Amino acid sequence: DPDSGDNGLLLYSLVNNQMTEFDIDKKTGQIFTVSLAGKTGTYYLEIQAADQGTRRLTARTKVNVTVDSSSSNNIVMVALNQKINVVDRNTAELKRVLSDKLAWKVYIIHVYSNELERKARSSTDVTYVEITAFDKANQEVSAEDVKRKFREQKTNIEIELEKIFSATVTAAVEEPPADSSTPELIATIVLGVLLACSLIAFLVYVALVIKRKSLIKKHDEIVEGIDNLCAAHKNGSLKSLGKPEHTKN
């Protein structure tokens, strides 16, 4: 839009966005991922550009993003000594620097910290960024090649990132822990433990009910035995059997 002033100021947004997988830079219109770890499929996004003039004009377009599992083995994890909210704000610039220094098209798959999502996104000084790269032929670059090139360009990458973050930056390739547990796995384990406890409590309850019924039954049998100490005369009247009558000799 060649207009000047507010008429030339464009802001971008995701229309009716109810997904958490994507976000958009409102100033540049660049779409980036928030969390796609372990997910596949096609996502349908609708993007709106709006000027800020008095008579606000808008335009929309649709973007389809297809995610497959072919990149799962070639994802590289980069650790930055920056708060996650700072990295989030500069995702577009981070992608630009990595693409420029690695000489490949770099995509950011996931940005996260070791803190739980419920905690403040500025509460940790280490942020992990999962990336994958494609060459000029649009072929996926192996993780080993990405790691090798990253280590070669590590100093240059850090220098460029310091300009963006206005702070000293250390960037390093790290291997994800082999025994790391995803939130989904942890939730499954907790749910399984709760179900097991519920089952045990139910079985204990059933055992107590059965025992109680058994005691009641025994009590009824004793009472019935006491009642049977009385017998009836032939004429129908009751005769006590509990104490024999004395007869005169």
Please provide a written account of the structure.
- The protein is of the alpha+beta class and 249 residues long.
- The chain folds into 3 domains: 6-67, Immunoglobulin-like; 72-174, Alpha-Beta Plaits; 181-214.
- Helix content is 34%, strand content 25%.
- It contains 5 helices and 11 strands; from the N terminus they run E-E-E-E-E-E-H-H-E-E-H-H-E-H-E-E.
- One of its GO terms (cellular component) is catenin complex.
- Pfam families: Cadherin.
Helix percentage: 25-40%
* CATH architectural name of the largest domain: 2-Layer Sandwich
Q: What is the CA-based Rg, rounded?
A: 37 Å
Can you count the beta strands?
11
CATH class (first level) name of the largest domain: Alpha Beta
User: What is the H/E string?
Assistant: EEEEEEHHEEHHEHEE
Domains (count): 3
Percentage of residues in DSSP E strands: 25-35%
- Describe the main β-sheet briefly: 4 strands, antiparallel
Instruction: Name the shape in a single word.
Output: elongated
Can you count the helices? 5
Structural class: alpha+beta
Give the rounded overall mean pLDDT: 78
Indicate the CATH topology of the largest domain: Alpha-Beta Plaits
Looking across the biggest beta sheet, what order are the strands in? Answer: 7-8-6-9
